[in-house]
Every structure is written in structure tokens, then in C-alpha cells.
Input
Amino acid sequence: MNSMNLKKKQRVRIKHFSGIIFLILAILLGPIQGWAGIGAIDPADFEYSEPFEVSASIMDIDYSNNMLIVLESKVYVVDLVIGVQNLKTALSDADGKPILFNSLSRGQKVMVRGMKLPDGRVIAGELVRLSLGTGN
Output
């Protein structure tokens, strides 16, 4: 049990470290290219962004723009190019198995970790589906 807690802490540290690396790369490497639905992102946006983490139900979902609403925040699932680096949201179920964005639906509980930009948009670094339940 103790070794499981240690492994969990190591994973959290790695994820936190990768978020910091992403932020530094975003600032240093220049423009971001991605989906039109997300809108323009300036590398300076990441300089003023804040860490975002929440567990809540999906209020709404826009499959065409890879965006969902969680606790009234627009959360974007991304696959962005930042200079020569690629940022791709890690999507998984509660067991850590990869899932597809189109398997998500309104009412399911998710955990989102990412960066909240100054304009309120959230760029998800990780999205974990915690439940299969659906809502209306």
C-alpha cells in the first residue's frame, strides 16, 4: 500500500513538472497552431495563466470544437503545436485506460487538470472520466 502511495505521488510530481515545462515552452517557442474552435492563443496567455483542477459533471459538450463545459468553464481538449513541441490532452478513464473524446457525454463526472487562460478558457492537460453516468 505504501509503495502505491509513493507511485501516485511520483505521477503527480511528473504531471506537475510537465505542466511547468509546457508553460515555459509556450512562452519561449512562439505561436501555437491548433484547431479553429479554440480561437487564437498567444504564448503570453500562458504567462498569466493559472493552474486549473476540478472534478465535476460535464454540463455541455461541443464535439465539433473539442470543447466541454465543466462548472461553467469552457474546457478545450487539445492537440497543439508549440514551436516544435506537441501538447495533447491525455484522455483516460478512472482506471487509466485511454478513451476517445467522442466517448464523453453530458452528465458524466470528469476530473480536469490544465491551465486557465486570462480570458477564462481552460486548456486541458489531462481529463479523466470518473463515471459513465449520463444526465439530461
